[in-house]
């Protein structure tokens, strides 16, 4: 593997499978009474979050602590960043502290790439603007693999606000690397201009794609990133692109429903669909810790995984 994880495109098929297989090994630890391994003892991981995030930050913190790393949580609010400190100066401060790994979430696309040029430690992109979120794609692939087995030839449909979704971009790149066939379904206004160059199909009609899908991933409508009218009304959006009870009934019997969270219940996904046994939404959160443990373990060069119950 490379030293950083900034884009899902950084991962070869072998890299991706190594992470997923390592996560499978680490998942066994979650079933033990003592869930810690000594593999990253003495290493320091900094969570550098310039954007609010509950799930991702806690997930990375739990992952690092289960591997016995020291964790420093850095929030931009109330820090020198709010006084105007630049990303480079923050990076130099982290470098002086001897951070072995930096997990960064930032509102600017490309911020993790810049950071990687300023620090000696490994950089993990935990979401940058509307660009990418590679560890979310990895945990999604891990969840699919646990439910369906191999992803080779599986049909994955990603529905909704693709334009503002870093999750969609990372999933398309990773899933195509792993041999899945991805179809994006969205209104034309919520698709990026560059989508023609992505390794996927595009459709505007959810009802024709659903019956052929093995996985349906609903994306949150990101109102906070919208500064224009991308669709007429929320009701109209839900009618055409929401996964309600009737559409859910048309899915194959073994098809699964996913959502990266947080959800707008009743808009992109009905409550009864989100809470059904075929929904993996809660599993995805649990699998996030395991998958991020695998990423940190591999990037920071942890000791042997058979670390015993220490």
UniProtKB/TrEMBL annotation:
GO molecular function, one term: amino acid binding
Protein name in UniProt: Aspartate carbamoyltransferase
Keyword Amino-acid biosynthesis found: no
Function: Catalyzes the condensation of carbamoyl phosphate and aspartate to form carbamoyl aspartate and inorganic phosphate, the committed step in the de novo pyrimidine nucleotide biosynthesis pathway.
EC number: 2.1.3.2
Domain (Aspartate/ornithine carbamoyltransferase Asp/Orn-binding) ranges: 153-299
Organism: Planobispora siamensis
Gene name of this polypeptide: pyrB
GO biological process, one term: amino acid metabolic process
Matches recorded under InterPro entries: Asp/Orn_carbamoyltranf_P-bd, Asp/Orn_carbamoylTrfase, Asp/Orn_carbamoylTrfase_sf, Asp_carbamoyltransf, Asp_carbamoyltransf_Asp/Orn-bd
Domain of life: Bacteria
GO cellular component terms, A-Z: cytosol
Assembly with partners or alone: Heterododecamer (2C3:3R2) of six catalytic PyrB chains organized as two trimers (C3), and six regulatory PyrI chains organized as three dimers (R2).
Family matches, as Gene3D superfamilies: Aspartate/ornithine carbamoyltransferase
Residues that, per the record, bind carbamoyl phosphate: 55-56, 105, 133, 136, 261-262
Catalytic activity: carbamoyl phosphate + L-aspartate = N-carbamoyl-L-aspartate + phosphate + H(+)
Enzyme class: transferase
Iron in keyword set: no
């Amino acid at each position: 593997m490379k030293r950083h994880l900034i884009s899902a495109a950084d991962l070869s098929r072998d890299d991706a499978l190594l992470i997923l297989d390592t996560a499978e090994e680490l998942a066994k630890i979650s079933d033990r009474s003592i869930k810690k391994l000594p593999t990253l003892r003495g290493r320091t991981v900094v969570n550098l979050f310039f954007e609010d995030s509950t799930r991702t930050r806690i997930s990375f913190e739990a992952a690092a602590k289960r591997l016995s790393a020291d964790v420093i949580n850095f929030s931009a609010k109330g820090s020198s960043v709010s006084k105007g400190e630049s990303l480079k100066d923050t990076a130099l401060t982290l470098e002086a502290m001897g951070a072995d790994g930096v997990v960064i979430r930032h509102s600017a696309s490309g911020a993790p790439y810049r950071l990687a040029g300023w620090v000696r430690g490994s950089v993990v992109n935990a979401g940058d603007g509307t660009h990418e979120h590679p560890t979310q794609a990895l945990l999604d692939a891990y969840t699919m693999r646990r439910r369906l087995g191999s992803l080779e030839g599986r049909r994955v449909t990603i529905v909704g606000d693709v334009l503002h979704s870093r999750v969609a971009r990372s999933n398309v790149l990773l899933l195509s690397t792993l041999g899945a066939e991805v179809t994006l379904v969205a209104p034309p206004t919520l698709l990026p201009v560059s989508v023609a160059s992505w390794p996927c199909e595009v459709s505007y009609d959810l009802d024709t794609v659903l019956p052929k899908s093995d996985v349906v991933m609903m994306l949150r409508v990101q109102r906070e990133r919208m500064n224009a009218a991308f669709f007429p009304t929320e009701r109209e959006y839900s009618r055409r692109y929401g996964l309600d009870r009737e559409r859910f009934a048309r899915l194959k019997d073994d098809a699964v429903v996913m959502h990266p969270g947080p959800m707008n219940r009743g808009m992109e996904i009905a409550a009864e669909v989100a809470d059904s046994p075929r929904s993996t939404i809660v599993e995805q959160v649990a699998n996030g810790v395991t998958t991020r443990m695998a990423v940190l373990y591999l990037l920071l060069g942890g000791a042997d995984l058979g670390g015993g119950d220490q």
